[in-house]
Fold this protein.
Amino acid sequence: MEAIPGYVIDRKLSSGGTSGVYRALDLESGHHIALKILFPKWAKDPRALELMEREAWLLKSLSHPNVVRGLASGHWRGLHWLAMEWIAGPTALERVHRGGPLSTAAVLELGRQLGEAVRHLGRRGIVHGDIKPANVLLAPGGVAKLCDFGFARVRRAGVADEEAVFGTVAYAAPEQMEGEPGVDSRADLYGLGATLFHMVTGKMPPLPDKWGGLPVMAGVAREVKWIVQHLMAPSLKDRYGSAELLLGDLGHLRDLREGRARPRPVPSRVRDEFHWEFN
């Protein structure tokens, strides 16, 4: 591949339908970065260019410890590129494939970090739209970072900037798959739940069904099961209504596990019901 001024590519990290991601040395900083490059055959496709430019704008405008940082973007001799921080760690998908399901404590901590990322995005009107293990990077020190904003949507005045089917089927909320208008952060909460399901069971999550039941999770700690099932509720009225509610429950679970709090009732889904059974 032709060199992009200021960067020296040393190896490919991943490849998708329209672009590849490479590790490269940033000659100015002396640090390694991840360089996403749109394949030349897509360089004249208006839609592919729009998505690439949107992702670059979003990542450069966001600043959160659980979201990959965008550093720079541009184009050179027909190559459109995006420079991002390089994470020297596996994806969550690679982690579960190599090491098996996560422990209860580890999956709850992953849920907390990704919940923080979803809250940050939601406050800015952003729907990631494709939260899944392959789009979560695990940095040294146990920090999870959400990446790949190629499907991201920006909501303005309560309406998403476009309405269409988007996301990855096994991790996408039913309303995404049906192309419903006004998809919001609750779809990202569904994707978060499906990701946690995969990480704690080692299995792909069941396909979303707007009229179906909650996923079966035999052998999984009941606190994890409770959280995941309320993230993956097919109906919006039964799903967590916000990342704040999720983070509140996860924080209380952490306190319980560390002996800093007593069991208390917590909201069932987003309604005024209480049926907490943690003993």
